[in-house]
Amino acid sequence: MDVKRLRLLREFADRGSVGAVADAMHITPSAVSQQFKVLTKEAGVELLEADGRRVRLTSAGQALVLRADEVIAAVERAQEEMAAYRSGRSRVRLAMFPSGATLLLPAVLDRAASDAIEIDASHLDVGYPDAPPALADFDVVVTHRDERTPPVSSPRVRVTELMREPLDVVVSRNSALAERDSVSVTELADHDWISVEGGFPVDDVLLSISAITGVAPRVTQRMLDFTTIEALVASGHGIALMPRHASRHPGVKPLELQGVRAARVYEALTRPRPRRAVTSVVDALTAAAARYGA
Question: Where are the beta strands (DSSP E) in the chain?
C-alpha cells in the first residue's frame, strides 16, 4: 500500500469529508476519490460506505486508519532522523489555547532551543471535543477541559495530563465581596456574570453553579479574552470565573469558590507513538506545568 494513499485515508478520518481532504491536500475531490478507489483495490475490502449524501469509513477502513497512523508515524520518525543528520534540528507544530500559551510557552521554547528543536507555535482555542481533530494540522495540541469532563478516549490520540488550575471568582476591588477571601456558590445567584462562550471549562462550571443554586446565572456579556473580562469586572459590570494563573488585573480581587468543584485541566494531545522531537516538546510542557502544581 502506498504511504501517500494511507495519508489521504487518515486525513479523511480527521476531517470527515472528501472535500475537506481535497482542500487540505491542495488537490481536487475527484483525485481524492480516485486514490481511495486504488487503496480499496489494494486492501481487497471496502474502506468507505455511503452515509446519506456523504461517505464514512467502514469497520475495515477504521482499522486501516489505525495502521496508517503507525506507518506514517514510522515514516515521520525516519524523516526526522535524516533531517537531524542534515541540519541538526527538528521541527514541531504546536497549538495552544492563549492563556495556556502565556503560562507555559516561554519555558517550552527555552527548553526546545537547548534540544535543537524548532517550534512553530500557534494559538488554537476550541471546545474540548474539537481539539483532537486539530491533530490533522499540528503535532501537539494543548487543550483544556473542565475537571469533571472525562479525557479523550481514542486509539488515535495520546493524552498527557499537564496540570490542574483552580477557577476563582473575580470581583471588582470596589465590591463589598472584595473584603473577603472566599465565597460560596449560593451567595452568587443574584449577580451579573461575564463569561466565555459556551463549551469552554469556565462556562461548564457556571452550569454547575446553576444546578446547585437552582438559578440560571445572569450572563450579561460573553467574551473569549480574559483581559477584556477582567477589565469589565474591574469597572463594576459584573463578576466572572477566572483561571487562577490568568488573573492579572490590579482592579479585581480573586475569591476562592466554595461549594462546587471548579478547575480546568490542561492536556497535551498527540498521535500515538510520536516522533522523538514531539515527545521532547510534551516533556517540556510537563516540566513547565509542574512549576504551577498539579
Answer: 48-51, 54-57, 90-96, 117-123, 140-146, 158-172, 182-184, 192-195, 218-222, 240-243, 252-258, 263-270
